[in-house]
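Morning!

This is the sequence you dropped in the shared folder:
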Amino acid sequence: MPTIGQDRGIPETRLQWIISAYALTFGCFLLFWGRVADIYGKRKIFVCGSAWFAVTTLVNPFVPNEIAFDLLRALQGLGAAANVPTAIGILGTTFPPSKAKNYAFSCFAAGAPLGGVVGNLVAGFVAQYASWKWVFVVIALAGFAISAAAFFVIPPPKQTIQEQASPGSRPSVDWLGAVLVTSGLLALLFALTEGNVVGWRTPWVSVLIIVALVLVALFVVWQRYLEKTGKLAPIMKVSIFRNPQFSAAMATMALFFMSFNGFLVYATYFYQDYQGLDPLQTTLRFIPSGITGFTTAAIVSQLLARVPTYILLAIGDACVSVSALLFALPIPPDTTYWAWSLPAMILAVFGADTTWPCLILFTSRSLPQADQALGGALVNAMGQVGRAIGLAVATAIQTAVMARERGVSVQSAGSVEVGDAPSLLGIRAAGYWNFSLGILALIVVLLAFRGSGIVGKVDAQKLDPQVQRDSGRDEEAAVKA
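The structure's back. Tokens below.
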């Protein structure tokens, strides 16, 4: 980001918008695109979303100024928001309950850490030996490849929900609900993103948070009205939250993502800002997480059909909590990487790739086939909101500790400096916050999911013969792959 800032004349105080512009549109449009995909076709939205992401990414590095650059980053987020929930929906509708479905969701979960490590390594090498613009070009080419592969590989559905319905009763998108939830999430995430930059006492930050909460509340009321009257299919059926375990799954997702994302962010701060490592050296320290993610997918795909859900979720949350704790404890910062940083990297991703497929599979099995993309959108939206809230609080804690140690006001706390004791204490304080979030997620799991059964177990007696034959073919294909 510093290189981009220098090249495009972006001041340091606004550099975070290179990330935030993308994250805002991605998090805010998930529910909208999830519902659109369920109505008009998941394959169609996935292909278009991938192509849109590729085109905007390719154009991004060639725009001349800050505003255009941030705008295109936001447009990239729109493509990703269309892509991610539809991918989950495609997996949910393609595979019947089977071991193959467990494999599919486990591999999907492993894609994030593995893709993150490979992407960061490629970006690090490209940025070091060529222009940063080539990083965007490489990502765009990958996006075009994914779009083309999806077009030729993903089979088109026999009929979409829109096509199945009679001409007079065809479902349509709840546009009012889409505007309410998208505007509410946009206002909330924007306020949380900017709060630590302009200060939480800035009047418009509080006003924007209140407006966001009002919009989200109106969205919930409107969805309940639509669900009761049946005049229009709601974007989200509020009644699903009456299931205590479903509500607990969403809460677990938010808390878990707060802890896991916070760990990744502050581990990066520790390596790059406190230890003064360059981006490539920092990325190398995350390589074990990618390897762990790939290995964990193979293990968890087997455990999903054998081990009770609450045990897997508890193990996952406990691992992420321990990882955050290792970066919070007063371990001498010059201690070798192999002693505590490596175990933290391994445990964090093992926990993520244990928890994530459990929650996705649980959500998939809790919703009808017609709402699979929406389910994927809901899980990801909870994660994005959790990420924003968790990181905002962690940053506030870090800044307050640094200000106290430096004897200045919060507004004058400054940034993390290489080898600086107050900086280290601030990072550790944020680590304790991330640890507490992981423990809270663990408590929710132990209270809500005991006796919930095995989420990946298939009851063959409840499947009709055709589904059993399809399941058998899927499992054979998964094993061969």
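Headline: The chain has three domains: 1-94+130-156, 174-234, 243-471.

More detail when I'm at my desk.
O.
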